[in-house]
Structure prediction request, 366 residues.
Amino acid sequence: MDLSIVVNGMTFPNPFLLGSGPPGTNARVIAKSYDAGWGGAVAKTISLESAKVVNVVPRYGKLRSKTSGEVIGFENIELISDRPIDLWLEEFRQIKKEYPKHILIASIMEEYEKGRWQDLTRMVQDTGVDAFELNFSCPHGMTERKMGSEMGEHPDLCEQVTSWVTEVSNIPVWAKMTPNITNIKEPSLAAVRGGAAGISAINTILSVIGVDLNTLRPMPTVEGHTVPGGYSSQAVRPIALRMVSQLALGLPQDVSISGIGGIENSHDAIEFLLLGSSTVQICTGVMLHGVKMIDELKEGLEKFMTDKGFNSVQEVVGKSLGYFSTHMDLVQKMKAAKRSKAGEASRDNEWGQKDITEKTAELTSN
Ligand SMILES: Cc1cc2nc3c(=O)[nH]c(=O)nc-3n(C[C@H](O)[C@H](O)[C@H](O)COP(=O)(O)O)c2cc1C
Prediction:
């Protein structure tokens, strides 16, 4: 089945992209993912001066299910790429030469200075990459240099920086937004005013993964100390789905959305498509399960489309958005369906007749 989709003029062989991070850390791993069947990749974020980027070890922490041990949440305090820009430029050229039909998106980040952003844009664009993703969203480390989410939290900076980039770029520009903000629509709309053709959401959520009760040290612990980091993996998916749906309902129709956050299989990815994403990105899922997870992603999407009678991925995009409403409207709909009795039978006064866990189960939909 044809799983391709055209987004901002780019033809993606399928809607599944490596998210910026370890899965796109150099040309070798990106090539391996294309060979495995991924439709595209957003490379690890790069900047002009890699010498300023110094990572720590350890830099990851996991939240596991208490019963199965499965990883449900993941924190990282990793910075952007520490590889020199010249090496990246050479590798972007090499990847585009060897894989001309796969989509390669360069993720870029710089300090708040027009010349720096425009130099980086021109250099990277010359290599033949298909699009840019502006990293306005890394929530730790880079923020100390006023980069990443320090920009994404301020709509005026998002608009300004995006316009610097779009002034010199002739390929599509996506802005990647931070969830560490009250209303994700505001900086996203600002980036669109600056010329962004698409919005990627979400980056990681600020978090502290836990505290070691033996040493009393919060984790991940580096020489006895830590900083809050970025939370990803399954646990963030409901938050990402909410933000993606808000964006899909609030952005101009022609702005594309790349959905990110906690995707581990085709079921999760289809949810993002149904809520308005034209492509989806996966970072932690690939780190935990490997690039071969693409097989299930493609098979699962094909099966879903066949079962539900969809002829193209584009037809799936945004299909569930019409089912969002207001609370008052839900009450009206229940009344109209003569289910008001069911609502009244679950009034707060009734609590206490049954065990609270039974009541919770009774009011849960899945
Ligand atoms: C170890 C790690 C490194 C990351 N590095 C970057 C990065 O360099 N640039 C970026 O835009 N996002 C980066 N991210 C964020 C991911 O691309 C993604 O937005 C986020 O983790 C949520 O998606 P996921 O649950 O599929 O990982 C990183 C995430 C992780 C876990």
Observations:
- Residues 293-308 form the longest helix (16 residues).
- The mean pLDDT is 96.
